[in-house]
Amino acid sequence: MIAAAVVLNIRYDLGVAAFSSVMYAISEIYRISLGTASIICYLLFVLLQCILSKKVTLTYLLEVPLSFAFGFLTDLYDMFIMDIECHIFLRMALFIATMFVTAMGVCLCVKTDLVLTPTDGIVKTISEVFAAAFSTVKNAFDISLVLVSVLLCFVNHTEFYGIGIGTILSALFLGRIIKMYERFLYPANKKLIGK
């Protein structure tokens, strides 16, 4: 579902989602597939989780094959999902709907302790290590990914690949949407999710 959302966000032509901005920039700058760039970033996130938590867990190890599966699915969707040509307001509505679906998927995966994508896994690890609300860390992490992708493009003297209004919206609001779902679905866990 998240792999499809990554490609759909590209097809809406409003800027990629914040969580995939670095991957997209790497794929465009270095002319590799989006799936390959995703695998590289995901494996780095798994390594960072091990370093931050100072341990190697089965959950972290399971994120490795998930990274390769996600990369493969991303390239598969990239081949088959066509460009979406419709009015900008409809594309914006679709982008926002995709953001809400993605946020719901992330929220449910985190709360049910399923194996997460490394992007969400690193956010969960940071939130646990620093005792911060997942949704707050998600917001900060997404914004930092956008800044890293801008820096990558700047250093390589390229256009700002994939950065658009959709990127800014997802960076600012995906974490907040997750927090909204957390408050609605898990009202007993307010201490964990933040006020």
Write the layout of secondary structure elements.
Blueprint: H1 2-11, H2 21-29, H3 34-53, H4 58-80, H5 88-111, H6 118-129, H7 134-155, H8 165-185, H9 190-193
What does this protein structure show overall?
This protein has 195 residues and is mostly helical. It has one domain (1-185). Mean pLDDT is 88; it is low at 191-195. The chain is built from nine helices and no strands.
Number of domains: 1
Secondary-structure element string: HHHHHHHHH
Percentage of residues in DSSP E strands: under 5%
Spans with pLDDT under 50 lasting ≥5 residues?
191-195
Alpha-beta classification:
mainly alpha
**Helix content percent band:** over 70%
Protein name: Integral membrane protein
Keywords: Membrane, Transmembrane, Transmembrane helix
Pfam families: DUF6198
Organism: Hungatella hathewayi WAL-18680
Short summary:
This protein has 195 residues and is an all-alpha fold.
Features:
mainly alpha, 195 residues
